[in-house]
Amino acid sequence: MVVRRSSIRVGYLAFCLVYLLAAQSRAQETAEAVPADQAFVNRFWQADSEAARMALSEQLLVSQPDPAALFELLKVGPLYSDQVPLGEHVLARTNSAGTEFPYMINIPQDYDPQRKWPVEFVLHGGVGRPKAAAGENFWQRSLDRIGQPGRITVVPLAWPEAVWWQDEQADNLVAILNRLKSTYNVDENQVSLTGISDGGTGAYFYAFKQPTQWASFLPYIGHPGVLRNPQSGGGYRLYFENLMNKPLYIVNGENDRLYPAASLSSFIDILKDVGVPHTWTVIAEGGHNTEWLPDYLDEVEKFKSSNRRDPFPSAIQWVADRTDRYNRNHWIQIDGIDGDERPALLQVDRSSNLISVEARGIEQFRLLLSPDFIDFARPVQVVVNGESQFYDTVEQSAESLLRLASRDLDRSMLITAELSISLTD
Fold first, then answer.
1. Given a cut of 90, is residue 337 above it in pLDDT?
2. Sheet strands side by side (includes 328-329)
3. Residue 275's CB: how many other CB atoms inside 10 A?
4. What integer pLDDT is reported at residue 34 of this predicted model?
5. Among 305, 323, 344, which residue terminates a domain?
6. What is the model's pLDDT at position 18?
7. What is the DSSP letter of 262?
8. Pair 388, 285 in one domain
9. 3-state DSSP helix/strand/coil percent for the chain, to nearest 5?
10. Separation between Cα atoms, residue 406 and residue 49, nearest integer Å
């Protein structure tokens, strides 16, 4: 056993100019009033990329900050301004490969930075259509159908070269969410992902492959089978174990010309058999549309409000067939697979400082530990497949805290220690 303790261009357009001018003015007025530690947290949150946050972290680490004190600072988070743009804004993010990803955000006119706001991402359908041209209204229909008062709405853009279930989009949605968190007081545990048609298929993708950031998934008139088809840009293997911790609100039309409800019956049967939390609504005589949605708004809103994310669930599992991505679920991560082409299963149950693990097909995994559920003054015990693999105190690390916070930008899911367990000895 080896135990290791550890150790965009963003196109804001006029939005960016307004925000930066306001920020500069506030900085000049309050520079002496803001304590140095709060100033660091503000700069950390407002940095425009993970790389920029890491650069700030490297500067701070020189002073060897106390991890426990730093944890408390990051948990409180930045001081959010009330001088921010409201209403609808079309922005863009450019990734490292030079691809520009437009998206629209709608900030309620009654936005108040003193409270946390729920967020809803809406994935549109028709990803086979050419990429929207500059100035083209790609988002209005989605916002009109899904957008509701009292929350921030985000409508990203997909097109044939960047469909929802591809790696670049998986990175893009997280980057957009983090950009939003840097400016607006987002409730990290109430971020839902809704999709329509191809967007519904995209919602299934994130439920199966990248659920950590989301509280719930609402796939409308989509089909998970598309994700298994290489010709659709997918070709993924889907593991139902990965759906256990996040609820699904699924709607299909009885007479849908693309994905009739009957075509999902076997999928729904499996959800029932394995106990995946879900609601499935079949629209009698419904077609491939959302004409039914106004009649279901109250039910949909109740579903979202009653299914907040638990950042550190005590029972959690994950199945992965690769380790370069799609290998993490909240506080567990698969780092090594035994290579026999079978997927690796990591199932974890936690009771105080005792962590019981079932691991199959795994050479190495990592537990991402937090003071929110671990008492670091006491030993941590890790039992794997019935055998004790670790029993010792675990040292918290400012480096781990800052590196993972740079990636997650999540006040409710801060990690102060990484416990890596190798099963190859």
1. yes
2. 3-5, 417-422, 362-369, 332-337, 328-329
3. 10
4. 56
5. 305
6. 36
7. G
8. no
9. 30, 30, 40
10. 8
- Among 24-38, 144-158, 323-337, 339-353, the range scoring the smallest mean pLDDT is 24-38
CA dist 163 → 10, 172, 327, 379 (Å): 20, 11, 21, 46
Q: How many domains does one find in the chain?
A: 3
Lowest-confidence range among 72-81, 333-342, 382-391?
333-342
Q: Give the pairing type, strands 186-196 and 117-123.
A: parallel
Claim to verify: residue 126 and residue 69 sit in the same structural domain = no
CA distance linking residue 258 with residue 256, whole number of Å: 6
Asked if 94 and 100 touch (Cβ cutoff 8 Å), the reply is yes
DSSP calls for 2-55: -EEE----EE-HHHHHHHHHHHHHHHHHHTTTS-HHHHHHHHHHH-SSHHHHHH
- Digit-coded pLDDT (tens) for 2-22: 333 333 223 333 333 333 334
* Per-residue model confidence as pLDDT tens digits over 139-154: 999 999 999 999 999 9
Q: What pTM did the predictor assign?
A: 0.90
Range of the domain at 352: 315-422
Q: Is residue 223 domain-shared with residue 345, that is, in the same domain?
A: no
Residue range 272-301: mean pLDDT, rounded: 97
Tell me how far CA of residue 171 lies from CA of 34, 166, 324, 405, 407, in angstroms.
33, 9, 13, 16, 11
Q: Maximum Cα–Cα distance for the chain, whole Å? A: 66
Instruction: Tell whether 69 and 93 lie within a shared domain.
Output: no
How far is Cα 163 from Cα 134, in angstroms, rounded to an integer?
Answer: 18
Q: Which of 282, 305, 328 is the last residue of a domain?
A: 305
Listed residue (319, 345, 315, 344) closest to 331, CA to CA: 315
pLDDT at 102: 97
pLDDT of residue 24: 40
